[in-house]
Design goal:
two-stranded antiparallel ribbon; 12% strand; two-stranded antiparallel sheet
């Protein structure tokens, strides 16, 4: 993520105390290698990406303003490419959920439901 996007992001406010230390522990645990699963099209075997990892990400995102789960089982090291891909997928899902809520609110705001 670029520094300019961090300047406007509120994500940092959700970091738990000790995040910097935990981040380094996870990178060390994973050997600073991306843990994203890859399916080899030629052999059908699953393997890890294995590219150098600089990001530590939550496998399952916190919802509804809850604090992040920084447990070892919920954190993994990702390369920049897979971190960006995962973040984009999560953002797209959040937009779809917001659109569904908007449509539902519009539907139930009809006078027939009042």
């Amino acid at each position: 993520m670029s520094a300019s996007r961090w300047n406007t992001s509120r994500r940092r406010e959700r970091f738990n105390p000790g995040w910097s230390r935990r981040r380094l522990e996870i990178l060390d645990r994973d050997g600073h290698m991306c843990q994203w699963p890859i399916l080899d099209a030629a052999t059908g075997e699953r393997r890890l990406c294995g590219m150098p990892a600089r990001q530590v990400d939550h496998r399952r995102r916190a919802k509804d303003g809850r604090p992040d789960d920084d447990s070892w089982t919920n954190l993994w090291s990702l390369c920049d490419t897979h971190h960006q891909y995962k973040t984009e997928q999560e953002a797209a899902e959040a937009r779809r959920a917001k659109q569904r809520r908007r449509e539902e609110n519009r539907w139930y705001s009809h006078p027939a439901f009042r």
